[in-house]
Design a protein that fits this description.
Length: about 375
């Protein structure tokens, strides 16, 4: 039986989520809620569902709701996530939240804690690794074809460069928030790095903004350089920029993960993954004695699509599938705890920057539950 879904927030991203639900046999979109009446009415008419103007009314009049999908935004794209998520979970509903989990780390921690207390699913739209290239790359790791992880290089950003007569952002959601880019966007690249390489234990960050932004009085820290160490001793680097330069190799989104047996690189998120098998050598660290051609040609796997929008139905289907199957809460894909983890890394990077680039240990995550029935 399809899960009944109500969406809160119809200012852009809510439509991407709505389209996914109406096309997925596991979901049944039954209600739309937005504090702005015109938005709620327009979306409700489009999808043939009932409109609400408060979550309280939607929860009261739709008692059979299984899932509340929170697509509100707010300051730094996340300040309006916590309140509706808590309200829905208090009512016993499963919740999916658009990223970031919150723009406030204490709110994010409270959301994860309440999901555990109420024993409901809390997921986040960390959609960047719900792709065919990511699945193929993950299989390389699981099949031992990458080996012991050595490094992870990640680059994500926006096409751009110097702009004549540049004007600083005027939106109150962005203006005067130096960490807007980090809070609004960093959950994506950090979640991908964690998906492939595991938990991060140390963070060091440097940030800046180019002259054309400074001259316009823009306070946004738009270029972020973050060095990390993973719990498994793999090291990593993330470069994220918000339209300060044009794309280079790998396009707007690239992740390269290297190990002792092979290396893969995903380009443009959803488009392709390339795998290079490590060459046979007579001695490590001596390139001059690598057997010519021993490594063979790289294996390129094309997804057949350039549509980044496909990541939304992919991710939402995974959430519907996990809830429908009743997977253990700690096995939920892109869970609230996962989203909290990358937010902890983000705030650790902010702290590192403010302290002049010192190494910071992220705040520890809540422990995973121990279930004597499912624990091997």
């Amino acid at each position: 039986m399809a899960l009944k879904v109500g969406i809160v927030g119809m200012h852009g991203i809510g439509f991407s989520h709505s389209e996914a639900y109406v096309k997925d046999p596991l979901g049944d979109l039954v209600a739309i809620c937005d504090a702005v009446k015109e938005r709620a009415d327009t979306a409700a008419e489009k999808y043939g569902v009932r409109a609400y103007y408060s979550l309280e009314d939607m929860l009261k009049d739709e008692p059979d709701l299984d899932i509340v999908d929170v697509c509100t935004g707010g300051l730094e794209n996340g300040s309006w996530h916590c309140a509706p998520a808590l309200e829905a979970m208090e009512a016993g509903k499963h919740v999916l939240v658009e990223k970031p989990l919150s723009s406030d780390i204490e709110e994010a921690r409270a959301m994860v804690a309440l999901a555990t207390e109420k024993d409901v699913y809390l997921g986040c739209n960390l959609n960047h690794y719900f792709t065919e290239p990511a699945a193929r790359a993950r299989k390389y790791i699981d099949d031992g074809e990458v080996g012991e992880l050595v490094y992870c290089l990640t680059k994500m950003g926006f096409q751009g460069g110097e702009i004549a007569n540049y004007q600083a952002p005027g939106s109150p959601k962005v203006r005067d928030f130096p960490y807007f880019h980090m809070k609004a966007f960093m959950s994506h690249p950090l979640s991908v790095m964690r998906y492939f390489c595991g938990d991060i234990t140390y963070v060091q960050a440097f940030m800046n903004r180019p002259g054309f932004r400074r001259a316009a009085g823009d306070v946004l820290l738009s270029t972020c350089s973050i060095h990390v160490k993973f719990a498994n001793d793999c090291v990593g680097y993330l470069l994220s920029q918000r339209g300060d330069a044009s794309y280079g190799l790998g396009g707007w989104w690239s992740v390269e993960v290297a190990g002792t047996r092979g290396t893969f690189c995903i380009e443009n998120c959803i488009e392709r993954v390339t795998y290079w098998k490590a060459p046979d050598v007579r001695g490590p660290g001596e390139p001059s004695i690598v057997e010519p051609g021993a490594e063979g040609a790289p294996v390129v796997t094309e997804s057949g699509t350039h549509d980044f929008g496909q990541t939304f139905p992919n991710r939402i289907h995974a959430f519907l599938e996990d809830v429908s199957n009743g997977v253990p809460k700690h096995q939920l894909r892109a869970s609230g705890r996962d989203a909290l983890a990358v937010l902890e890394y983000t705030f650790a990077a902010m702290e590192s920057y403010e302290l002049g680039g010192v190494v910071v240990r992220p705040h520890p995550l809540p422990p995973l539950p121990v279930d004597p029935i499912t624990m091997p």
